[in-house]
């Protein structure tokens, strides 16, 4: 069993910041101790990593990725191999991806397909949510079986009629089942029926450019769907997690529910915190790079998102990483914004962008770790194995240089996509070294990981409800 000591760094977790050395034995953290203590001085490790002047933080947990995801006649451009390698470069050591139930098929078939895609290819650990796109009696029964296998969250869509859409009755049935088996319902909250009307009207009027993708997906239709999802969850007695919250009005619905003490949770994503409709309106067809759903909002919405992250009305920042190359994929929507594949790349950038938010004064260092590591681990039944630095936890550890400067660019990122959503953005802070279950996968900005190191991690139920 290899032992590693990480010495001299500032250990930052969701609850504390302490100067401490960290001892790793094999795949787990064995101890944390003050650098000058007899305990730390007595360690005789096989190797020592110097973290002087750096932060030592938990590996990130990105609870919303889409690798090899079929959408709009194509598929997202990152495989499990390239996507998890890029995650490692960005300091993320666990991803939770979405297995898809196809209409007419079982949950088991969808889950088995995703296991086959991921097995033996991942650079870091992974788990699955299940997209429930065909709610019927047999799939409701399967939910119980999946919870028993550690797939404890189920995503439904109020958007995309004819593809993933579920009506209110189907949603209620799934929520009732989750209330009984301990599963967590995740909701894409947009009124897809109304949005389709607005899409049809916009195209008929000749409004075909990418910016209209944002204009038809109204903030009020996100807020209405969020309100409706909360009401259905209350009727069912089910907890609810709303994904990729982008609009101030939707945040207000979540805040009201939480003020009533309801088990309602929400995530936002870096694109809603750092990008806006200004990007969708970039000249030519450049705006297509920023088409995602929920859509980017006017910049004024960002203040409400940051405030909700500070007040814990939003608990998690995930990426919704779903990259499509500009050339050959996003271009499918030239002349018709509704045919632009929805999704942005971001799994490599999340930890760094959120550190920039610390630099900018939006959040504290501990809140950075909470929303990027600890809260998603607890939300999705991965704690305390993931998301923190404590004896017994997996040795998923990042040595982070808070002073390094970098410029985000497609020329230097490791995601399998031909553009960066943050091209040219200068930020402060950079991942230096990454351990995944004690194995070095990034060594002082050099990739030393391997496909197949990452393992499937069965999850417990939501620990925010314990």
UniProtKB/TrEMBL annotation:
Please name the source species: Streptomyces albireticuli
Which modifications occur after translation, per UniProt? Answer: Carbamylation allows a single lysine to coordinate two divalent metal cations.
Q: Which SUPFAM superfamilies match?
A: Composite domain of metallo-dependent hydrolases (SSF51338), Metallo-dependent hydrolases (SSF51556)
Q: Which Pfam families match?
A: Amidohydro_1
Residue ranges the record marks as coiled coil? none
Q: What protein am I looking at?
A: Phenylhydantoinase
- Keyword line: Hydrolase, Metal-binding
Extract one GO molecular function annotation from the record. Answer: hydrolase activity, acting on carbon-nitrogen (but not peptide) bonds, in cyclic amides
CDD domains, per this entry? D-HYD
Required cofactor names: Zn(2+)
Q: By its UniProt entry, which InterPro entries does this protein fall under?
A: Amidohydro-rel (IPR006680), Hydantoinase/dihydroPyrase (IPR011778), Metal-dep_hydrolase_composite (IPR011059), Metal_Hydrolase (IPR032466), Metallo-dep_Hydrolases_sf (IPR050378)
Superkingdom per UniProt: Bacteria
Using the record's annotation, list all stretches that form the Amidohydrolase-related domain. Answer: 55-438
Protein family membership: Belongs to the metallo-dependent hydrolases superfamily. Hydantoinase/dihydropyrimidinase family.
Keyword Metal-binding on entry: yes
Residue numbers carrying N6-carboxylysine: 155
Q: What's an example GO cellular component term for this entry? A: cytosol
């Amino acid at each position: 069993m290899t032992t590693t000591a990480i010495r001299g760094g500032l250990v930052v977790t969701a609850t504390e910041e302490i100067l401490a050395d960290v001892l790793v034995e094999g795949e787990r953290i064995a101890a944390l101790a003050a650098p000058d203590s007899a305990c730390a001085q007595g360690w005789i490790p096989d190797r020592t990593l110097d973290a002087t002047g750096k932060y030592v933080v938990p590996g990130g947990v990105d609870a919303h990725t889409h690798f090899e995801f079929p959408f709009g006649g194509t598929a997202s451009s990152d495989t499990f191999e390239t996507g998890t390698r890029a995650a490692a470069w960005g300091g993320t050591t666990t991803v939770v991806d979405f297995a898809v139930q196809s209409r007419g098929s079982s949950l088991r078939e969808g889950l088995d397909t995703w296991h086959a895609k991921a097995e033996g290819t991942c650079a870091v650990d992974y788990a699955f949510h299940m997209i429930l796109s065909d709610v019927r009696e047999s799939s409701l029964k399967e939910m119980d079986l999946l919870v028993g296998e550690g797939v404890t969250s189920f995503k439904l869509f109020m958007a995309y009629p004819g593809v993933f859409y579920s009506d209110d009755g189907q949603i209620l049935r799934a929520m009732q089942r989750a209330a009984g088996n301990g599963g967590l319902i995740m909701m894409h909250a947009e009124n897809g029926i109304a949005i389709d009307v607005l899409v049809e009207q916009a195209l008929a009027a000749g409004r075909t450019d990418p910016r209209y993708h944002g204009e038809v997906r109204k903030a009020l239709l996100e807020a209405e769907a969020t309100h409706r999802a909360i009401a259905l969850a209350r009727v069912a007695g089910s907890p609810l997690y709303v994904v990729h919250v982008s609009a101030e009005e939707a945040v207000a619905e979540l805040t009201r529910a939480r003020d009533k003490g309801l088990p309602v949770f929400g995530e936002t994503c870096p694109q809603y915190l750092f990008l806006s409709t200004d990007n969708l309106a970039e000249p030519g067809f450049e705006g297509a790079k920023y088409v995602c759903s929920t859509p980017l909002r006017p910049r004024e919405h960002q203040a409400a998102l940051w405030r909700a992250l500070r007040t814990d009305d939003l608990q998690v920042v995930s990426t919704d990483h779903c990259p499509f190359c500009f050339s050959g994929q996003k271009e499918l929507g030239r002349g018709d914004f509704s045919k632009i594949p929805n999704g942005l790349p971001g799994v490599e950038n999340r930890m760094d962008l959120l550190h920039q938010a610390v630099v900018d004064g939006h959040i504290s260092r501990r809140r950075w770790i909470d929303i990027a590591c600890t809260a998603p681990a607890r939300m999705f039944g991965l704690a305390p194995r993931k998301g923190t630095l404590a004896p017994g936890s997996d040795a998923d550890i990042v040595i982070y240089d808070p002073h390094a400067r970098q410029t985000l660019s497609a020329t230097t990122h490791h995601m399998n996509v031909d553009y960066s959503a943050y091209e040219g953005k200068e930020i402060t802070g950079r991942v230096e070294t990454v351990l995944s279950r004690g194995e070095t996968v990034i060594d002082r900005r050099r990739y030393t990981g391997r496909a197949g190191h990452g393992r499937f991690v069965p999850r417990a139920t939501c620990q925010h409800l314990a």
